[in-house]
Amino acid sequence: MVRGSVLSAKNNAYVEAARSIGCRDLRLVFRHILPNVVMPILVLSTVGFAWAILIGSSLSFLGLGAQPPFAEWGRDLAEGRNYLSIAWWISTFPGLAIMFTIVSINLLGDGLRDALDPRLRAR
User: Fold this and answer.
1) What DSSP state is assigned to residue 121?
2) How far apart are CA 120 and CA 123, in angstroms?
3) What's 57-86 look like in SS3?
4) Which of 33, 44, 93, 116 has its CA 20 to 30 A from that of 60?
């Protein structure tokens, strides 16, 4: 992902213009290329973090995660599924916690991209 973003940013007209006026390589990298490369990596890392939470919860739900006395949302979901008819909240609240955490992390990544992306500042 980083390599593709760098190759894409390197071929933009503003990088060629900065190079033609004598901009040094180090300044070119930090001023023109790096700001355009960081945002896709940031969004990808937040999505990867959300996937890690979801996979960890899934493994814990299947019994392959941390064992008691450690608390895990997936294990809480698995323990509560036998009591859904009489105590629905045992499984509902850990499931909602997983959902809200994953949605929050994805929204944080999108918000950071919107706030820090130099291509969106010009508009």
Assistant:
1) H
2) 6
3) HHHHHCCCCCCCCCCCHHHHHHHHHHHCCC
4) 44
Q: Residue 69 burial by CB count (10 A; 0-12/13-18/19+): exposed, middle or buried?
A: exposed
CA 112 to chain centre: 10
Q: 17 in a domain, yes or no?
A: no
Mean pLDDT value across residues 20-47: 87
* Domain span including residue 64: 37-121
Whether residue 97 lies inside any domain: the answer is: yes
pLDDT, tens digit (0-9, with 9 covering 90-100), for 49-88: 999 999 999 999 998 988 888 889 999 999 999 898 999 9
Is-contact 29 56, C-beta < 8 A?
A: no
Q: What is the pTM assigned to this prediction?
A: 0.76
pLDDT digits (tens, 9 = 90+) for 7-31: 888 888 888 888 889 888 898 888 8
Domain count, the chain: 1
- Is residue 2 domain-resident? no
Q: To 5 degrees, how large is the angle CA 81–CA 85–CA 89?
A: 65
